[in-house]
Every structure is written in structure tokens, then in C-alpha cells.
TrEMBL record:
The gene is PIGF. It holds the Pfam family PIG-F. GO terms for cellular component: endoplasmic reticulum membrane. One of its GO terms (molecular function) is ethanolaminephosphotransferase activity. One of its GO terms (biological process) is GPI anchor biosynthetic process. Pathway: Glycolipid biosynthesis; glycosylphosphatidylinositol-anchor biosynthesis. It comes from the Eukaryota. Its EC number is 2.7.8.1. The chain crosses the membrane at residues 12-30, 42-63, 84-103, 109-129, 150-171, 183-207. Keywords: Endoplasmic reticulum, GPI-anchor biosynthesis, Membrane, Transferase, Transmembrane, Transmembrane helix. This is Phosphatidylinositol-glycan biosynthesis class F protein. It is found in: Endoplasmic reticulum membrane. Its main location: endoplasmic reticulum.
Length: 219
């Protein structure tokens, strides 16, 4: 059972890593003189869109999402609306946090919000795909010993790596190096994406290595 779940998770993570590559290549094929530095927002939204599409498709096909109590159209529509609302609130939350950490309040507001969209795609969207619009389930997963499956553990790892990656990406910005990747928010978005990829790679390895110590109990 462990091997099947870990292999399934590793395959899903490989597809998600591939979506980052596809999202990075798409602007080069559609936008003239495209580059990560020169047309960074195009790259950022392309990567975010590819990750979002693959995330939703993978978790829907694998059936990781929690089963709905009702199958009526109105109930499914309500879940979809709540999920969209939570994603928007997540973008506003990350935008506020980034501003509190020193990002310009009015200047480069679009760039700051774009970074918030990327962070929400890497973190909140995965919560929505795996747990649904259930805040209590989110709190349970990110609490101590709250993971109930390998997917919960992978969610913890990828979310933490994405946020830490964005935070680490901010360190080179104030340095007087005059490099193109120091322009806000290039290094932060690259750091978040790099952290996300690191989490995708680290999660299956860490879970496999510690599988004897992991005991998931139904709560």
C-alpha cells in the first residue's frame, strides 16, 4: 500500500514539475523576445496557469479530493464558488503579507499581486484540490501530527518549501549588484517556484525514507 501511494504521488509530482517547464516554455513560443527577466509577468502567469490546470486535472483523475456529501448541481456550484472565493482571499492575504514584509504599497502593486497569485497557486490551490474549501481540514493538516495520509504530508512539504523559497528569494534584492533578476519580484517568484520544485522532489523521498516512523491515524 505504501509503495503504491508513494509511486502515485511521485508520478503526480513529476507531472506538476513538467507543468513548470511547459509554463516556462510557452511564453517563448507565443511572445516575441520573451524572457524570464524582460517579460517576467508573462512568464509568471504562464507558469501559474499551467500548474493550476495540471493540479486540478491530476487530483481529479486520481480521486484525491474528498468525496462530496451531495451530488446536486447546486451543491457542486456552491463548492466551486467558495473555492474561487478562498483563492481570491488567499491572493489578498499573500499580497498583504508581502507588503508588510517590505514590498512597495502602491508602486509595483501589479507585480506584488502577481507574486501573490503565484504563491496562492503553489499553496492554496493544492489545498483546495486535496481538501476542498474546508478551512478546518486545512488547519488539521498544518497542525502538529495532523497529516492523515502521504498526500497530507506532501502538501505540508511543498507548501513550506514554496513559502520559504519566496522568502529566501527576497534576500538578494537590496544588494547593490545591479543584476536584472534583482528587479521586484523576479527573485521572489523564482525562489517560490524553485522551492515548489524542491518540495515536489523532496516529499516522496522524505516519506519513503521515514515511512516506518509515519503512522497515520483517522481523526
Amino acid at each position: 500500500m505504501w509503495e503504491v501511494e508513494i509511486r502515485g504521488m511521485a508520478s503526480a509530482h513529476a507531472l506538476l514539475a513538467g507543468s513548470v517547464l511547459v509554463g516556462s516554455l510557452m511564453p517563448a513560443l507565443t511572445v516575441e523576445n520573451s524572457s524570464v527577466y524582460g517579460t517576467h509577468l508573462v512568464w509568471l502567469y504562464s507558469v501559474s496557469a499551467c500548474i493550476a490546470v495540471v493540479n486540478i486535472a491530476v487530483f481529479w483523475l486520481l480521486g484525491i479530493s474528498p468525496p462530496t456529501k451531495k451530488n446536486t448541481l447546486s451543491y457542486k456550484l456552491s463548492r466551486l464558488i467558495r473555492s474561487c472565493l478562498y483563492f481570491l482571499l488567499s491572493c489578498l492575504f499573500f499580497h498583504t503579507v508581502v507588503v508588510l514584509y517590505g514590498a512597495p504599497l502602491l508602486e509595483s502593486a501589479l507585480e506584488t499581486f502577481s507574486l501573490a497569485v503565484l504563491l496562492s497557486t503553489l499553496t492554496t490551490l493544492r489545498c483546495l484540490c486535496m481538501l476542498g474549501p474546508n478551512v478546518q481540514a486545512w488547519i488539521r493538516v498544518f497542525s502538529r501530527d495532523g497529516a492523515m495520509s502521504v498526500w497530507d504530508t506532501s502538501l505540508q512539504i511543498t507548501t513550506g518549501c514554496s513559502v520559504v523559497g519566496a522568502w529566501l528569494g527576497a534576500f538578494p534584492i537590496p544588494l547593490d549588484w545591479d543584476r536584472p533578476w534583482q528587479v521586484w519580484p523576479i527573485s521572489c517568484s523564482l525562489g517560490a517556484t524553485g522551492g515548489f520544485l524542491t518540495g515536489l522532489l523532496a516529499a516522496p523521498i522524505w516519506i519513503r525514507w521515514h515511512r516506518k516512523q509515519l503512522t497515520y491515524k483517522l481523526k
